[in-house]
Amino acid sequence: xxxxxxxxxxxxxxxxxxxxxxxxxxxxxxxxxxxxxxxxxxxxxxxxxxxxxxxxxxxxxxxxxxxxxx
Length: 70
Known about the structure:
This protein is mainly alpha-helical. The protein is built from two helices and two strands, in the order ββαα. The chain has helices at residues 22-36, 38-48; strands at residues 3-5, 8-10.
């Protein structure tokens, strides 16, 4: 877990230890979060008739990690 930003969060895969399958790990994590929230979404739908969903963005590519600007 890198940071929380309001109602969002940012997670890094492959830092500080690189993994060849970092993109696949990120995809599995995203799918796991959606699956884990299904019971809560069902509860919200039944109690309030709102369609509860989460959105997840994935990015793959070079990046810097660590404390920048120091």
